[in-house]
Design goal:
- By secondary structure, the chain is mostly helical.
- Helices cover 44% and strands 0% of the residues.
- The protein is built from 4 helices and no strands.
Amino acid sequence: MKIRKQDYGTANLVGRKIEMLRKQKGIKQKDFIAKIQVAGCDMNATSYSKLEGQIRSATDKEIFVIAKILNVKMEDLFDDSFLREKDF
């Protein structure tokens, strides 16, 4: 698996976790994109790379499909480390 060349952005909360889970399952990015497309999401390699890199927002449909492919709950894709307990 390739190592990320650029820093993560701030456009979504799920990208870093999706990348981590995909790599843990040993799925290559191109194969993962193919699964997303078969599931009905129109996504190309550039768009997916930007999603993982947190450079673009993820749609609810994309999050739903990605969670299904990774066999995790949608909420498992979110990194809530930016939240503070006193915010609630």
